[in-house]
Amino acid sequence: MNNAIQPQRGAAVLTAMLVVTVGTVIAVNMMWNASLDLRRTTASLAADQSLLFLQGAEAMAGDILRADLIASGDIDHLGEQWAAEIPPMPIDGGVISGHLEDLHGRFNLNSLVYGGVADEISQRQFERLLMLLGLDQRLAGVAVDWLDADVEIEFPNGGEDNIYTGRNPPYRTANTVITSPSELLAMSGLEQDAYLTLMPYVTAIPSGSSLNVNTASDIVMASLSDDIDITYATQLVQERGMVGFTDINTRFQDLVEADVLTRISGISRYFLLTATVTLGTHQLTMYSLLERDSSGIVRSMFRSLGAQ
Ligand SMILES: [Ca+2]
Ligand SMILES: [Ca+2]
Out of 41, 82, 84, 145, which could bridge 158 as a Cys pair, Cβ 3.0 to 4.6 Å? Predict the structure, then answer.
């Protein structure tokens, strides 16, 4: 009789172990899924919250630029409040930081064409900028062809569709204005290293925008004329200090060509806001191109997340 009971007990123990094992696997699986759900929800919530905080930063930048227009609409320089770096500010669950940059202090790539036609003055300035940065000046002709409306190659250093349609994958020139300097990366002969060198000195704002000599760096200042070398440009930057030039026309009339003089000023309309929010392990950076019009209205023309 004992011999009959033993196998039955063994089967019962095995069944119990199987039930416990299956139960454990199901429980662990449920906990794992719940943990993943929690992480997904947390990340999604942090992303939503980050966007709201970044929108707040953009509104705050708008207020600062509006206040500046009221206080000093006739001049924009690096000593003004908008130019100050905003230190990281604590927010619920993290920190937010940001700064504004005057895009009129950079060379405007869209100035290379005006009304779809190549602009020689800007092309010469871009060639000087490339030279000052140790880059190939022929890139100026390539950029002009990328932007100008026609499909005729800028002689001798341009590049129209014939170059790009032969690539894999093939693509065409924009033949119009650009919205981001990163389009340079699509242009012939411009490798990533050259792009990274050039990036801090170029922008893409509407053609016809003036260059603000109160905010331009020494290298951009030197690109204005063959008569301004980098040493003299550094002196000019020191001279304007944190208050800007008192009379730009008088100061620059003997330094730059008359046509260039009409393209420089001391006031700005387009600014780049860079704002970063950190919430726990989640971090997000927003780049926002802000336009401040003459009535003080500030609007975002272009936003990007993560990359400029
Ligand atoms: Ca101002
Ligand atoms: Ca073209």
Answer: 145
